[in-house]
């Protein structure tokens, strides 16, 4: 029996429908949410993601602001663009598209973002709130991919409380922050964060009720590693040439054999990616609504 699909495309589309109504209500009260993006360089993937974010904004009625810099922009150029976005009143929230080019101090750039405009939830103040407010509602942006994963699972009626969750990968946008979200009292899961130094990954994954695979290694979650019926969230992105069409295609961390054994699996593409985009819009709308609540 093959796994049921965690359909990120259709959940994201439903969320965008809900956001459109909330944006209309905000505009009626004189609040226009505006998402800014800062893109440095001409990496085709990053350009595609940023273009998608602006298309999403147009779809739900959020204004959008772009800061595009060439690949040879200096640390000072990038920091100046961050300051412009901090000061622009039309920009109510923004992201710095990652990764930044080699040689740029990413942490220094992220720390300069106004925490109240941090639509990615990656500013140290906002990550710190996740640590400190473990029992309370967090009233700042949450990292988009982790938030999207939880929303995707919960909107399919799957409960995470008490579940054993194994995360593969300790990256800043997924692996590290997702543990903070999943172990909050409101979610109440138990998390093991694995990485390249982990010994006997297979044994850990085999125990997991839920696997969040964000290693970026094609097929790293193999069939023999998965507990029958487990929930597999495929986040990792690798690219390869499709032998039939000759075109580049995305492949995930979950092997087709693992997906057969699972109870639920998120397709890749079509699972976590669209949810990441929808959560960015949610962060911007949530934060605009907070300004009205005072
Ligand atoms: N500042 C940030 N940078 C990056 C983040 C992030 O959350 N904040 N995450 C990724 C890139 N990303 C958003 O920025 C992103 C990745 C993938 C998708 C998506 O919809 N993917 C499609 C497939 C696309 C393809 O074929 O290439 C899917 O999964 O269906 C959206 C956003 C790194 N940088």
Provide mean pLDDT, rounded: 97
Structural class: alpha/beta
Q: List SSEs in N-to-C order.
A: EHEHEHEHHHEHEHEEEEHEH
Q: What's the number of domains? A: 2
The CATH superfamily of the largest domain bears the name: NAD(P)-binding Rossmann-like Domain
Beta-strand residue percentage: 15-25%
Largest sheet: 6 strands, parallel
Protein name: Bifunctional protein FolD
Binding site for NADP(+): 169-171, 237
Pfam family, one: THF_DHG_CYH
Catalytic activity: (6R)-5,10-methenyltetrahydrofolate + H2O = (6R)-10-formyltetrahydrofolate + H(+); (6R)-5,10-methylene-5,6,7,8-tetrahydrofolate + NADP(+) = (6R)-5,10-methenyltetrahydrofolate + NADPH
Describe this entry's structure for a reader:
Helix 1 (8-28) runs parallel beside helix 10 (272-293). The protein is α/β, with parallel strands linked by helices and 294 residues long. The strands form three sheets. It has a six-stranded parallel sheet with strand order 1-11-8-7-5-6, sandwiched between helices. The protein has a three-stranded parallel sheet with strand order 3-2-4, with helices on both faces. A two-stranded antiparallel sheet has the order 9-10. It has ten helices and eleven strands. The protein is globular. The chain folds into two domains: 28-119, Rossmann fold, CATH 3.40.50; 144-272, NAD(P)-binding Rossmann-like Domain (Rossmann fold, 3-Layer(aba) Sandwich). Ligand LMY7XDAE binds at residues 49, 95-98, 120, 144-145, 173, 250, 268-270, 273-274, 276-277. Keywords: Amino-acid biosynthesis, Histidine biosynthesis, Hydrolase, Methionine biosynthesis, Multifunctional enzyme, NADP, One-carbon metabolism, Oxidoreductase, Purine biosynthesis. Catalyzes the oxidation of 5,10-methylenetetrahydrofolate to 5,10-methenyltetrahydrofolate and then the hydrolysis of 5,10-methenyltetrahydrofolate to 10-formyltetrahydrofolate. Residues 143-290 form the Tetrahydrofolate dehydrogenase/cyclohydrolase NAD(P)-binding domain. Residues 6-120 form the Tetrahydrofolate dehydrogenase/cyclohydrolase catalytic domain. It catalyses: (6R)-5,10-methenyltetrahydrofolate + H2O = (6R)-10-formyltetrahydrofolate + H(+); (6R)-5,10-methylene-5,6,7,8-tetrahydrofolate + NADP(+) = (6R)-5,10-methenyltetrahydrofolate + NADPH.
